[in-house]
Amino acid sequence: VCRRGQVGLQAMDACACLRWPSNGETSASWWRAMAAGRATLITDLPHQPEIPVLDPRSWRMVGGTGPAVAAAVPILDEHTAIVAALRRLALDRAARETLGTAARSYWRAHHTLDAMAEAYVPLMARAAARPAPHAMRPAHLDEAGDERLRTLLAPFGLAVPASVAAE
Fold it and tell me: Tell me: the pLDDT tens digits for 99-119?
């Protein structure tokens, strides 16, 4: 829902930052919505169990501790959850404001650039103190592939082109 005469996130009463599939990242658009103090819908992702969120179908806490900072939409019941969340957020200004205020506080505590940079200091110290990992690569990554190509072309009486053959 947009507020008349405003632009960007300040014009929004609520934001949806739904992402699937996820590669384990946190949505930057969600961070911006939290920083703006907006109520948000996010996808309920297993790699974010510490985030205090509500189930939009019941408006009960399902993750993290502290005040809820978003409504987390379960992937397997997405339609029902989104409809319930949008209905609640559209009709209940206090719910929007409470969620938005908590989101802004959570962002200030956990997601500002200063907070993130500060969190990297001990992480980098721990990483630097560990021995370098020994990466085991699958054998097929060390093969040039020309032997496999030779095997595939042989029944047709064809040779591996010189431009492809390993030196």
Answer: 999 999 999 988 888 888 888
Interior CA angle at 120 toward 115 and 122, to 5°? 115
- Tell me the chain's radius of gyration from C-alpha atoms: 25
Asked whether 17 and 29 are in contact (CB, 8 A), the reply is: yes
Sort strands 53-55 and 60-63 into parallel, antiparallel or unpaired. antiparallel
Of 51, 62, 55, give the one whose Cα is nearest residue 78.
Answer: 55
User: To 5 degrees, how large is the angle CA 127–CA 131–CA 132?
Assistant: 90
Q: Give, as one character, the DSSP assignment of residue 2.
A: B
Amino acid symbol at 9: L
* pTM for this predicted structure: 0.67
CA-to-CA distance for 32 and 87, rounded, in angstroms? 23
Nearest to 73 by CA among 48, 113, 108, 44: 44
Instruction: Give the Cβ contact number of residue 113 at 10 Å.
Output: 7
22-69 per-position pLDDT tens digit: 887 777 888 889 999 999 999 998 888 899 999 999 999 998 888 999
